[in-house]
Amino acid sequence: MAAVSAAAARLHHLLSLCVAVAGLLLMLLGGGEASVHEYRGLGFLNKGNAFILHAGSEGLYAPSSPANATTAEDDEDAAAAAVADAFIRFDKITFRRPKDAAKETGSAMVQILVFEIEDREMIGGSAYGGQKAICCTSDLAKLGACTEGSVIYRPSQVNPGWPQLLFSSFDGSDTIATLPSRIIPITKTGMYNMYFIHCDPSLAGLEIEGQTVWKNPTGYLPGRMAPLKNFFGIM
Q1: Could you tell me which InterPro entries the record lists for this protein (predicted)?
Q2: pTM over the 0.90 mark
């Protein structure tokens, strides 16, 4: 009798463990609609002639329905339709610069670069074959390759309309610049990266607040866990 009770106890423990594991898997697979990247108290790092803040990196799956293959420039209805599928959304992104810098510099610009990992070689350039620069130099501008002070990139050969480059500008002596809420639909499966970049040394001390939301068609699985997708599928 004691042996039967012990076996029953072990079975109950095993079932409880299975329920707990199943619950954890459900949380991983369907518990969250999207990945949220929040920005507060983060600084820009000097990389060559650019000042860069890595804003996120996620694996995103393109929707299976071609009807949702819209672009970031489509109208509000098309962008709203993309909400149900795969997208990157910008929410209340605000940049603040010191008052002294605003008085001395005047107008300035922060750029937001979003690209798929296959297009990483499309970022940056060099006037004479030397080390790549992220920000357009006067030499490159004279060659007509880019606009001085802007991020250098070339159009993707495999993903039309990419990389995506957005802008947030400080006007005059304003200390605050905002990026309007915006959705970038994802139409190609891949690993996507986002960087906040400025090319102006006078923006030292720049602060950022806000968040971005990264969503897959059927919920969210972190990009770095993508190889486990098939494993989860057979559980």
Answers
A1: GPR107/GPR108-like
A2: no
pLDDT (tens digit, 9 = 90+) per residue, 38-89? 999 888 999 989 999 999 999 998 887 644 444 444 455 454 444 548 999 9
Question: What Rg do the C-alpha atoms of the chain give, in angstroms?
Answer: 23
Q: Count other C-beta atoms under 10 Å from residue 17's C-beta.
A: 10
Q: Cα(205)–Cα(10) distance, rounded to whole angstroms?
A: 60
| CA-wise closest residue to 94 among 210, 201, 181, 205 | 210
Integer Cα distance of 51 and 204 in angstroms: 9
Phi, psi of 59 (to 5 degrees): -85, 125
CA distances from 87 to 192, 196, 216, 228 (A): 11, 18, 7, 21
The domain locations on the chain are 34-223
Distance CA 229, CA 235 (A): 10
Tokens of 74: 């489509």
Mean pLDDT of 178-193: 94
Count CB atoms within 10 A of the CB of residue 166.
18
- Using CA atoms, how far residue 183 sits from 59, 74, 77, 123, 180, in Å, is 17, 10, 11, 22, 10
Rounded to 5°, the CA angle 11-16-20 comes to 145
Q: How many CB atoms are located within 10 Å of the residue 209 CB? A: 16
